[in-house]
Automatic annotation (TrEMBL):
Full protein name: Diaminopimelate decarboxylase
Domain of life: Bacteria
Cofactor(s) essential for the protein: pyridoxal 5'-phosphate
Pfam families in alphabetical order: Orn_Arg_deC_N, Orn_DAP_Arg_deC
Domain Orn/DAP/Arg decarboxylase 2 C-terminal: from-to ranges: 290-385
Family note: Belongs to the Orn/Lys/Arg decarboxylase class-II family.
GO molecular function: diaminopimelate decarboxylase activity
Modified residues (N6-(pyridoxal phosphate)lysine): 63
Active site (record annotation): 358
Length: 433
């Protein structure tokens, strides 16, 4: 079997990275790559999928990848930023995002964070009535241009990964719209506070099917229509429909299903696109997951109890979710030899692929049939551009690996690199100095 086009593209990146010592068995045994061409292609599909005659702000969910260089590139590609902590907020500002193209979410916004967002004029999605009381108080103390709305929990049910589902009956997020008396209480809050001009839902991440997302957004539109009807004017002028478009972790297709998403919304919530509302989206995973990957050297291999194990330099520190929830977050693994060339399919073996962390569960794949791995080979953990290398786990004081943006030169077909994050080793030991 010939290596796929995608493997050949990755092989070119690996060969160049080895050549430039961005990957080195001893000095940098793990590194991550983000393919900018694929990101740009994906974003073109995103922008085209939505109707051109409706104002839409696509605010990238910074938690999916909050590196400043990434947020900066996404800004230049036309995205805003959705932030959910002071750290993400600072990263977005440093990346040049402007307050009117940002959204502040978080279920635990502190008074200081709220004040900061209100001072800058960043839109706020209020999670609950206690937070709302704070926002109202802060606004009385100092005027603010921040658009403000409530996050609704449409309580339409959970997807296939319960930890990722935010619209279940008992989710910690938002105001539970279907609970007794809640809808009326919320509508009254809008009627009493004319500055409440937005509303928001985010039904969940990976594992929520499009009809479920559509249903939740349908609840949002109905709510906004009802508020506006009772207010007798277009009080709510912007709907923030969240993110959560699932990506497929099984193929090399880098373009997310934005067209299917919009089609599902037209079906489930036709009034969303009627022109009464400007829109905000908050996609994260579907923007970057498929465009990034992690490469790591195989340090050793062994046979244990009849099982073959490859011990590599990528484990829980860069693939935390996969290691702790392997059934919910399986990753494809591509294999390469020490020169970066794709490994031939044979000989193959059923193998465990382990990481460097000192706990037994540090496995990124178990019982997986793969080309037989040898010391000095490279593995690639695919579809890890969001929530993986950018969201590390400091176990064993393992450093964050370097992250490199990749750009192919159209003339030579060869990849060039821009370092988005250097490997972290020096910082790691500062607090002990
Ligand atoms: C996590 C999150 C997102 C992004 O979800 P993806 O699945 O990465 O698209 C958007 N909005 C909110 C409020 C979130 O918590």
């Amino acid at each position: 079997m010939n290596p796929s086009e995608a493997d050949q593209r990755r092989a070119k990146v690996l060969a160049a990275a080895i050549d430039q010592r961005l990957l080195d068995v001893d000095d940098s045994p793990v590194a991550a790559f983000l393919d900018w061409q694929q990101v740009a292609d994906n974003l073109q599909h995103l922008h085209r999928a939505f109707p051109a005659d409706i104002p839409v702000l696509h605010a990238f969910a910074a938690k999916a990848n909050s590196m400043v260089g990434v947020l900066e590139r996404l800004r230049r590609l036309g995205m805003g930023a959705e932030v959910a902590s002071d750290g993400e907020l600072r990263a977005a500002l440093e990346a040049g995002h402007t307050p009117e193209r940002m959204v502040f979410d978080s279920p635990a916004k502190s008074r200081r964070e709220l004040q900061h967002a209100l001072t800058l004029g960043i839109a706020i999605n209020v999670d609950n009535f206690q937070e709302f009381a704070r926002v109202a108080e802060l606004r009385r103390a100092a005027p603010s241009v921040s658009p403000v709305g409530f996050r609704l929990n449409p309580q339409v049910g959970a997807g296939s990964i319960s930890a990722m589902s935010t619209a279940s009956a008992h989710s910690k997020f938002g105001v539970p719209l279907a609970d007794p008396g809640m809808r009326e209480r919320l509508i009254q809050a809008y009627l009493d506070h004319p500055w409440l001009n937005r509303a928001h839902v985010h039904v969940g991440s990976q594992g929520c099917p499009l009809p479920l997302i559509g249903q939740g957004i349908g609840v949002l539109v109905d709510f906004a229509d009802e508020v506006n009807a009772r207010a007798g004017r277009a009080q709510i002028d912007t709907l923030d429909i969240g993110g959560g478009l699932p990506v497929d972790f099984d193929t090399d297709q880098p373009i997310a299903h934005f067209d299917d998403y919009v089609a599902a919304l037209r079906e489930a919530a036709p009034r969303l696109f009627c022109g009464d509302y400007a829109l905000v989206t908050e996609f994260g995973r579907s923007i970057l997951a498929k465009q990034g990957w992690i490469a790591a050297y195989v340090e050793y291999t062994k046979e244990v109890g009849g099982r073959r194990i490859a011990i590599t330099h990528a484990g829980a520190q860069v693939a935390t979710r996969t290691v702790f929830m392997p059934d919910a977050w399986p990753l494809r693994i591509a294999t390469f030899d020490a020169s970066g060339a794709p490994k031939p399919a044979r000989p193959a073996a059923v193998q465990d692929v382990a990481g460097p962390c000192c706990f037994a569960g540090d496995l990124v794949a178990q019982g997986r049939e793969l080309p037989l791995l040898e010391p000095g080979d490279l593995i690639a953990l695919l579809d890890t551009g969001a929530y993986y290398f950018s969201t590390p786990f400091h176990y064993n004081a393992l450093p964050l690996p370097a992250v490199h943006g990749v750009e192919f030169d159209p003339a030579t077909g060869l990849p060039g690199f821009d370092t988005l994050r250097a490997a972290e080793i020096d910082d790691l030991v500062h607090d002990r100095a």
